[in-house]
Amino acid sequence: MEKQPHLLLWKAVFVLIMIGLGFGIYAGSKSIDYTWRWERIPQYIINTEATTVRSPFDGTATIEKGNKLVVTSDYGDDPLVIKKFDNLLVNNGDLVFEGDPLVEVENWNIGPLTWGLVMTLQLSVVSLVFAVVIGLFAGLARISTNPALRYLSVTYIELIRGTPLLVQIFIFYFFIGTVLDLDRFTAGVAALSVFTGAYIAEIVRSGIQSISPGQMEAARSLGMNYVQAMVNVILPQAFKRTLPPMAGQFINLIKDSSLVSVISITDLTKAGREVVSSTFAPFEVWFAVALMYLVLTGALSWAIQRLEKRLSASD
């Protein structure tokens, strides 16, 4: 029997390959005529810049007990009272004019890229729930003995899989959305759900048909009807087998959600385009956007792998 290579050796080979890839990317970045400005990106993820409070009128600044700033107006307006601040920019008794900086307040604000990430996550989660429901019913209809249900399911699956998602988004927003008065978010969720549901339907169908027909016959012989046998016997087994391709489809859904930016939904991709237009740092922004998508898909992939291990341990 051939001796298995040492595990550490192959791990070292993997590390060397990754180092080589990293060096190649670094060398490639140096070979192009481009000035990298990574320092511009963090503020678009988490903005930590202090907010400056300015005087709304001409007056006199007074610092009272308890570190409270009061600006008295020269024109009889109600005084401006600032109780909480981090940096004081005036002294006691200073004359201030309208627009002069008074204090700075340090705060943490979510940047546009993070808001885009939140929108992408909302789109993906809501679309995922509806896509699973649509795919489950369409998959069951696909193997139904009722010709009407079967033909409707086949038509739906072939029609959706045979047309681009981008075209479907336009149809849902400009045509169906106009008829049903749908907002952008609802139209985007509907398009993603219907599109992904067609692929999930085929995954469900293949998973069910991979179960031995004897399982259904045994369940029916125990007195179960078709629905009980499908819910209690067939679908739990099919779920385990379809988990890996289902995970791949869920990851595709997250990436496909970037297309809803064409109907002006400020998801992660659209937020990236807006940041590029204000920073003129396209490579840095798109690398950051790609990393954020990778965090979402990586977290989902990790969760699916943990679920697979737990289900396999329960067998």
TrEMBL record:
* Name by which UniProt lists this protein: Putative glutamine transport system permease protein GlnP
What is the topology of this protein in the membrane according to its UniProt annotation? Multi-pass membrane protein
Indicate where this protein is primarily found.
Answer: membrane
Positions of transmembrane segments: 7-28, 115-138, 159-179, 185-201, 222-239, 285-304
Question: GO:BP terms for this protein?
Answer: amino acid transport
Keyword Ribonucleoprotein in record: no
Q: Which GO terms describe its cellular component?
A: ATP-binding cassette (ABC) transporter complex
Keywords from the UniProt entry: Amino-acid transport, Cell membrane, Membrane, Transmembrane, Transmembrane helix, Transport
Q: Name one GO molecular function term.
A: transmembrane transporter activity
Q: Enumerate the spans annotated as ABC transmembrane type-1 domain.
A: 117-304
Q: What's its job? A: Part of the binding-protein-dependent transport system for glutamine; probably responsible for the translocation of the substrate across the membrane.
The answer to whether the entry has keyword Calcium is: no
Q: Which family does it belong to?
A: Belongs to the binding-protein-dependent transport system permease family. HisMQ subfamily.
Top-level lineage group: Bacteria
